[in-house]
Write a structure and sequence with these properties.
This protein is mainly alpha-helical and about 150 residues long. It has one domain (about 5-115). Helices cover about 55% and strands about 5% of the residues. It is built from six helices and two strands. Strands 1-2 form a two-stranded antiparallel ribbon. Helix 1 packs across helix 4 and helix 3 runs antiparallel to helix 6 (about 90-115). The termini are far apart. Mean pLDDT is about 80; it is low at about 115-125.
């Protein structure tokens, strides 16, 4: 019987709750985002574990299978948590932690959108703000002349 829920088992719980509270945000909880939000994800998982699953036979195995991507078990956990979320007291307990995770994801998305860096043939291009227009970078060492062409002293 688990006392402390590991991150691997807390992650599917967090995804389900985020999807319910923030319409699909749980799908953004990829590997890098999980690293950025480890503490609140574990806290949320622990709260849900203590309230919903702890002491019930087979729930640790159910969560393990769900964490590994087994669809029947993931559906079972999702159905159970969605039913629990009909309880306002439960939602009140998990919502502040889910908001914290959501804020991490928003900041994570914001950083990814604003700090795009690409390297082309040894030259770098960094974009610090979202652009409405495409960014064009000319590679190599082109010479541009405006107005009068350069003089040739041959």
């Amino acid at each position: 019987m688990l006392e402390t829920l590991p991150l691997m088992l807390a992650t599917p719980i967090a995804k389900i709750i985020l999807d319910k509270l923030y319409e699909g945000v749980g799908s953004k909880l990829g590997e890098k985002a999980v690293e950025a939000a480890t503490a609140p994800i574990q806290r949320l998982g622990q709260v849900v574990w203590n309230r919903c699953f702890r002491g019930k036979p087979g729930t640790d195995k159910l969560l393990e299978a769900a964490a590994k991507g087994s669809q029947p078990e993931l559906k079972q956990v999702r159905d159970y948590l969605l039913k629990e979320m009909e309880n306002p007291a439960f939602v009140e307990e998990v919502k502040p932690i889910a908001q914290e995770i959501h804020q991490v994801l928003v900041r994570f998305d914001d950083v990814n959108a604003k700090n795009v860096q690409q390297i082309f043939g040894g030259q770098g291009l960094q974009v610090n703000e979202r652009q409405d227009q495409p960014i064009i970078q000319i590679q190599g060492n082109p010479t541009m002349h405006f107005g009068t062409p350069p003089r040739s002293d041959n």
